[in-house]
Specification:
By secondary structure, the protein is an all-alpha fold. The protein has one domain. The chain contains 13 helices and 2 strands. Strands 1-2 form a two-stranded antiparallel ribbon.
């Protein structure tokens, strides 16, 4: 069941939900960064870290609290949100994301086995596909499940520099929400607005020098939401399949190229490292804030391109997406060249 709202009214409602999520997340982060408790994990720097001082790894809980309360408090106060009248698939996605939050919170304290974590990722991805039930054969189903799991994990890989993942979350989910609202899916638009608002609050505490890190409790569910909501929009005919990956293209490209390179070198891809493009930029002296601004600008550009390409013919979509990927490839090439020149000094 869907609820149709005038776009201006929906934009106002989304703004109110985003503001509520911002306030709740900011309040939670403020408390978490000032209280010492065994349930608040601390990220202590090691030889592979980009930070130099212990930081509370609790930002994901603050983001989750902001999103959940922003979606639950208005109905409790008598204001019906479109999320409550949306299709079952959206509810499945949000509930499954909460399951990942719970698992990651436990993992941050007890280090769950890798096999259990990946089994949960695949199980959650399968549940989303079953709820969406796209009209496709099993090869595409398998590819979509792998895509959700990959996006879930690459978001975690890219959460390693102050302000980076939070900024991309804010911009990326704002683009998804804008596209959903303009396409007549208010439930998804409101949900994305809540995530964007909560991420904006987190950025305040994660900007360099960071006072809080997102942790797996934030990065894993956010990657899952980015891919699952993007897939849901495609199944519902809101946008093309390439839309969400193109919005998050700087993240996807950095993580995917780095993974393929490490596989080619025979490295253990599950071990921590410092070979992502964003890590190399920080190590070359660009600084966390500059790198975060650079990736935010790139995500804003790819997000605007994705929004503009939704309604053009397929040939135009291919050409536009190709230009975005070419620009990212050129940027990666230039970083590689600078890194090679920087290598003797390391």
């Amino acid at each position: 069941m869907s609820l149709h709202l005038p776009f201006v009214e929906l934009l106002t409602l989304a703004g109110l939900v985003a503001a509520l999520a911002f306030v709740v997340s900011a309040a939670c982060a403020w408390v978490f960064t000032r209280v010492e408790h065994p349930l608040i994990p601390i990220d202590r720097p090691n030889h592979r870290s980009l930070h130099t001082h212990p930081v509370a790894r609790i930002g994901g809980v603050a983001i989750c609290a902001g999103v959940v309360l922003a979606l639950l408090l208005p109905p409790l106060a008598g204001l019906d949100l479109p999320v409550a009248t949306s299709e079952r698939a959206l509810t499945t996605i949000l509930v499954t994301a909460l399951l990942l939050v719970a698992m990651c919170f436990i993992d941050d304290h007890r280090s769950l086995p890798v096999g259990l974590r990946f089994a949960t990722h695949f199980g959650c991805a399968g549940a989303v596909l079953a709820a969406l039930n796209p009209a496709a054969g099993w090869p595409l189903w398998a590819a979509l499940v792998l895509g959700i799991v990959w996006m879930t994990n690459l978001y975690n890989f890219m959460d390693g520099s102050d302000g980076l993942a939070g900024s991309i979350t804010l911009i990326g989910f704002a683009c998804l929400g804008l596209a959903a609202g303009s396409a007549g899916a208010p439930g998804m638009a409101i949900a994305c607005a809540a995530v964007a608002g909560a991420a904006a609050a987190f950025v305040l505490f994660n900007w360099s020098p960071a006072r809080a890190f997102m942790g797996d409790t934030g990065s894993i569910p956010l990657g899952f939401l980015a891919s699952s909501l993007g897939l849901a929009g495609w199944v519902q005919g809101l946008w093309p399949l390439f839309f969400a990956p193109l919005v998050f293209a700087p993240f996807v490209a950095d993580a995917s190229v780095t993974l393929l390179r490490r596989l080619a070198r025979g490295e253990r891809i599950w071990q921590a490292h410092r070979s992502h493009y964003y890590q190399r930029l920080v190590l070359m002296g660009w600084g966390h804030a500059t790198v975060a601004r650079l990736y935010a600008a790139a995500t804003l550009a790819s997000g605007l391109a994705a929004l503009a390409l939704r309604e053009v013919p397929p040939a135009g979509q291919i050409m536009g997406a190709g230009l975005v990927l070419a620009a990212l490839a050129l940027a990666g090439y230039r970083i590689d060249r600078r890194w090679q020149a920087h290598a003797p000094a390391r």
